[in-house]
Amino acid sequence: VLVGNFDYFVAKSNNTYIGKNAVVGCINLNGADYVTIKNINFDMAKAQFGYDGDGTKKDYAFSNIITGNNVNKPNKGAHNLVIDGCTFSGTTTKGGAAISFTDFHRGEGFSGNITIKNCTFETVGAYYHIYAHYTGDSFNGHGNFVIENNTFKSTVAAGPVYLGRYA
Predict the structure, then answer these.
(1) What does each of the 167 residues of the chain score in pLDDT, given as a tens digit?
(2) Which of 15, 38, 151, 156 falls 20 to 30 Å from 120 in CA-CA distance?
(3) pTM of the model
(4) How far, in Å, CA of 54 to CA of 50, rounded?
């Protein structure tokens, strides 16, 4: 259970993070498996930049949930992830997206078996709400990407969801 304010932390495999009046800036999934993120309030103003598998900063991935950064840069994406009942709010002048999966050049596979449900997206200044570039790992049994029962309250510059190069 998370209580209080957290600017940034790295997720660990086989963990459930439940918010109880928690406000989080950024969670780095860092290749973790079997992670649940539930009922957490995210502040877009405290998001961080995501990086791909080559360690390249992605300007469109200024986000509250990322798959790697310049310090924690895994060789694989996150698998079996559930994001449930979270609220993404706040203002950014850096664009980005509330949630970003930037798995290009992750040699051991992309993020997959992801469910994003019952969340509310109300960020201001973002390009997307959910951004995924090089995700899905169907060859290794991690191909599912489910986005269901979410509320998109704010408008974004490019579109609510981007799934590019989905494998």
Answers:
(1) 899 999 999 999 999 999 999 999 999 999 999 999 999 999 999 999 999 999 999 989 999 999 999 999 899 999 999 999 999 999 999 999 999 999 999 988 899 999 999 999 999 999 999 999 988 887 778 889 999 999 999 999 999 999 988 87
(2) 15
(3) 0.96
(4) 11
